[in-house]
Amino acid sequence: MEMKDWKVLLVDDEVEFVTTLAERLELRGLAPRVCHDGESALKAVAQEAPQVVVLDVMMPGMKGLDVLQRIKESHPAVQVILLTGQGKTRDGIEGMKLGAFFYMMKPLDLDELIAKMGEAVAAAAVG
Amino acid sequence: MREARFMGTVTAMAMHDMQNVLAIVRESAGLMGDLLRINKDVPFKHREALERAMGHITHHVERGKGILEAMSRLAHATDDNQSESTDLSTCCRVVAQLTERLARMKKAEVRYTGGAPALIVEAGTMPVMAAVFLGLRLVLDQPGADDRVLELSAENRAGRPVARIATPDLKLSPADLDGLAVALAGTGAAPQQAPGALELLFPSPGGKA
């Protein structure tokens, strides 16, 4: 599947971070949707399931790991890449136990994120 | 302990915010780089200076990332301290990162040169980090050539975890070693001089002390 066909949802409460990340992905041909909290992310997934969700772990309101759990319950095929802080590997490992596809630490390496999103899209196709 | 946990929690939260600051700086610089690349054929007088400045931003975001990771581990050390086992390699890596400024003040550089995987010490995280720091500071306080390099490593020596701080021609006096042994009381570490190196021997779980 070509990158332009990937269905990606970015979820992070840091508005400047997530909008800039979305712009950089758009320059590479993707059209990601963006949410700034867990509740709206769940609504976005329910409206149109993406193949990949890139999800910040630490957000106000519903926590990232709770959002992950809810997504995996309602849409098991959706693959979730968690964003954690440096030195917070414990959150990442916990997320992997809950069904996350992968976890990455902020600040991100964009090429690495795109590579992981590609793998996640392939995994979502298998289900 | 209450104060230590307060400091750890507050520092960890501040570190999280700093990570977000760095993430925004990195993505913004990345976006500028993307736009310059897309418009590479458009004449622009200051292109080279802008590209150089973005290179600096990228380099220092990476540097900040390393410092933040070390700070975050230090902040969480108060939680990890509840455990009776600690990874010596991680502690050495964190302390090497956090002593960058101290080393520069002494016209030296601390380089973490690696560690055995999962080198477990039977001691809390805070005392182990403090012991490695005290050892490093003693070596940094010794006279030496400008730009000298201190190589910090964590080794498994016949089942005994050892932090090794090596620099050419290091010679500690017996008084230095005695003073360090006193300072290390309660950390579990025992200092010894080796050729060109200070070594800190730590107790292994259920093993040699």
Features:
heterodimer; A: 127 residues; alpha/beta; Rossmann fold; 5 strands; 17% strand; B: 209 residues; alpha+beta; Heat Shock Protein 90; 5-stranded mixed sheet; 55% helix; globular
Q: Would you kindly provide a written description of the structure presented here, covering whatever features stand out?
A:
The complex is a heterodimer of chains A (127) and B (209). By secondary structure, chain A is of the alpha/beta class. Chain A has one domain: Response regulator (Rossmann fold, 3-Layer(aba) Sandwich), CATH 3.40.50. In chain A, 47% of the residues lie in helices and 17% in strands. A five-stranded parallel β-sheet of chain A has the order 2-1-3-4-5, with helices on both faces. In chain A, helix 2 packs parallel to helix 3. The relative contact order of chain A is 0.17. The mean pLDDT of chain A is 93. By secondary structure, chain B is α+β, with helices and mostly antiparallel strands. Chain B has two domains: 79 residues; 116 residues, Heat Shock Protein 90. Helix content of chain B is 55%, strand content 19%. Chain B has six helices and seven strands. In chain B, the strands form two sheets. Chain B has a five-stranded mixed β-sheet with strand order 2-4-5-7-6. In chain B, a hairpin with a 2-residue loop joins strand 6 and strand 7. In chain B, helix 2 packs across helix 3 and helix 3 crosses helix 5. Chain B is globular and about 65 Å long. The chains are: A alpha/beta (127), B alpha+beta (209). The interface between A and B is medium-sized, with 18 and 26 residues.
Strand sequence of the main sheet of chain A, in spatial order? 2-1-3-4-5
Number of separate strands of chain B: 7
Gross morphology of chain B:
globular
Give the helix proportion of chain A (percent range).
Answer: 40-55%
Contiguous low-pLDDT stretches of chain B (5 residues minimum) are: none
**Please, what is the CATH homologous superfamily of chain A?**
Response regulator
Strand order of the largest sheet of chain B: 2-4-5-7-6
Element pattern of chain A in H and E: EHEHEHEHEH
Structure class of chain A: alpha/beta
**What count of domains describes the coordinates of chain A?**
1
Overall outline of chain A: globular
The most extensive contact between chains is: A-B, 18 and 26 residues
Low-confidence stretches of chain A: none
What is the fourth-level CATH superfamily of the largest domain in chain B? Histidine kinase-like ATPase, C-terminal domain
What fraction, in percent, of the residue positions of chain B are helical? 55-70%
- Specify the biggest β-sheet of chain A: 5 strands, parallel
Q: Provide the residue-averaged pLDDT of chain A.
A: 93
Broad structural category of chain B: alpha+beta
